[in-house]
Design a protein that fits this description.
- With 95 residues, this protein is mostly helical.
- The protein has a domain of 55 residues.
- The protein contains two helices and no strands.
- The longest helix is centred in the N-terminal third of the chain and has 27 residues.
- The relative contact order is 0.04.
Length: 95
């Protein structure tokens, strides 16, 4: 057997051991207090949104009564107020 083949065989043995140890660790540490979740992540955007949705669904929300505040009528802009903000420094657009 060549050196490359022996290295590959050893690599497969280590991978099997690692996978078994990883599985054992997940079984031992997955409790009601600290639960492991698998996140299918072929589509990263969907995976992130699914995580956010899942975490928010686990929070016991209570509906709180809401009264909209009274908003005063819009005032006209004074002559001494500029139309846009002026900044001394700007972050350069690199991307």
């Amino acid at each position: 057997m060549g050196m490359a083949v022996r290295c590959r065989v050893q690599e497969l043995v280590v991978q099997v051991d690692y996978t078994q140890d990883y599985h054992t660790m997940l079984e031992a540490t997955d409790t009601d207090h600290a639960t492991w979740y698998r996140v299918p992540a072929n589509d990263k955007r969907s995976a992130r949104l699914n995580c956010i949705s899942h975490f928010l669904s686990m929070i016991p929300y209570q509906k709180i009564p809401f009264e909209a505040p009274q908003v005063p009528k819009k005032r006209k802009r004074g002559e001494d107020v500029p139309d846009s903000l002026q900044f001394t420094h700007t972050v350069p657009a690199v991307f």
